[in-house]
Design a protein that fits this description.
mainly alpha
Length: about 100
């Protein structure tokens, strides 16, 4: 019984250390959030680069793309209805991966 409890304590300590390390980061590259695994599981594309290419989007100007244009593309080519939903899920998935969930 103690071994199980010790394992839980170790996992919690590991998560705490990972959370501490994450708190030191000020930025996360978009290609890290939209990694190939996430893209292939949730979109018609195998990478974020392919998503950008097929949508004729420029990563340098992604903030300037009209919401209705990118929302329509996301809805057509992913499991999500909007860019915001797509981004939120990608961030949640990235964070869970970083914490070891």
């Amino acid at each position: 019984m103690t071994d199980g409890f010790d394992d839980i304590i170790k996992q919690l300590n590991d998560m705490q250390q990972k959370a501490h390390n994450l708190s030191k980061r000020t930025e996360v590259p978009i290609l890290e959030i939209y990694n190939d695994k996430f893209m292939s599981e949730n979109t018609d594309f195998s990478s974020f680069e392919e998503f950008l290419e097929k949508g004729n989007f420029d990563i340098e100007n992604i903030e300037e793309i009209k919401d209705e244009v990118i929302d329509a593309f996301v809805a057509q080519h992913s499991k999500f209805n909007s860019w915001d939903e797509f981004l939120d899920r990608a961030q949640e998935t990235w964070l869970a991966d970083q914490l070891g969930f």
